[in-house]
Amino acid sequence: MAISDLDLGWALRKVEEATLALNEAKTSPDSLRKYLVIRAIVNAKDSIAQILGIQELDQRLLLRVGAKAPWENVGIIKVFDSVIDFLQKNDVDPNTALNLGALLVSTAKNIVSSVQSIHIGGSD
Question: What is the pTM of this model?
């Protein structure tokens, strides 16, 4: 799997944004914590999507044409989407949300770090 320097840089940026949002969530009031955790998970998911070369399309466009999102059947992306959906639809203990976020952000960091360690350089 080849990844361009630009895509790897973007993935690194998104995983860093995820980490920052998660760190901010740790010290935020409970009312804000779930939002920040969701933001962290979305950024972590975006970093993995970038590594996988998945370009997300506008959801409204997909619904209009009845198409399925290209990432819909990618297991790791489905996990992130499921947790985001769960957090949005349920009243979850803020610390549970934080723990879920920490697990997923850590997963994204590990994936991006692994790709970075074997990345020799690609074409942009």
Answer: 0.82
